[in-house]
Amino acid sequence: MAERSFRGYLFATARVLVVAGVGAYLLLVAALYLNQRDLMYHPDQRVPDAAAAGLADMTAHRIETSDGYRLLAWWKPPADSSRPTIVFFHGNAGNVGNRKRQARQFIDAGFGLLLVTWRYNAGSGGEASEEGLLTDGRAALDFVAAQGIPERKTVLHGESLGSGVAVAMALEHEVGGLVLVYPYSSMTDVAEDRFWFAPVRMLIQDEFDSAARIGKVRAPILVIHGERDRIIPVRFARRLYEAAPEPKEGHFLPEGTHANLYYLGAGQLVLDFLERRVVIAPVTMTGG
After folding, report:
1. What pLDDT digit, counting tens, does each position of 246-284 carry?
2. Model confidence pLDDT, tens digit, residues 204-222
3. Cβ distance 114 to 86 under 8 Å?
4. Rounded-to-integer distance, Cα 255 and Cα 172, Å
5. How far apart are CA 90 and CA 258, in angstroms?
6. Does residue 179 contact residue 270 with C-beta atoms inside 8 Å?
7. Burial level of 136, CB count in 10 A (0-12/13-18/19+)?
8. Which structural domains are found in the chain, ordered by start?
9. Rounded Cα distance, 223 and 237, in Å
10. Contact present, 224 and 251 (Cβ < 8 Å)
């Protein structure tokens, strides 16, 4: 009798533990689903000043999107008609005020440059989502077109999160080139790698499926990534590169992380690529 009672107690305890474990797991999954955009996007509401950021030769603008948000952007036209204009879609951290090194390299080489921040940054007024960022990308390209820059003289530069927007915009516009730094195959792949215990593919709202899109891009493509990147593992950049059509170039830097590629020569790789693929006069630069 005592043995049966003890066995029943064990079974009851096991059931409670299983139910508690399943409940805790479901709560965790629910929390991931409800907070996924807080995990993916990191708003920075500071409004930077171009001169204070070392970019006094850029002018500040507010670009209005089709859904009524006003994106902070800094603009510098090209030095002459032989130089293309780069539309720079930055990554998750910071805003346009944190991109001095990249901007300075391109401006000093005579390129036109548009640095545009996202709708959830710098007082632009919006909430983050994939469709929202794609709308921001369209507004940026509309601004460049309004400055008289032809699409074939426009180069899309996507950094990390912004690489997904750049790929999507390259499908919609006949641009002269597509540059992807710290890119990913899809946000689903990255999230699944990080949250391996959750059914990510069922939960994710903003997929940014660049690998599915890039095969239809008609512009020359440059991919630069770091072998030591722990934020976006290099295998996802390689997966994207494999899906990309020719002409394409890939550089996977052995010492590269998610923060240092422009200190390891990424800037010159971009300029060399544009010289070969977008047909401009040869340019050189120092420091990057």
Report:
1. 999 999 999 999 989 999 999 999 999 998 888 554 444
2. 999 999 999 999 999 999 9
3. yes
4. 34
5. 13
6. yes
7. buried
8. 41-277 (3.40.50.1820)
9. 8
10. yes
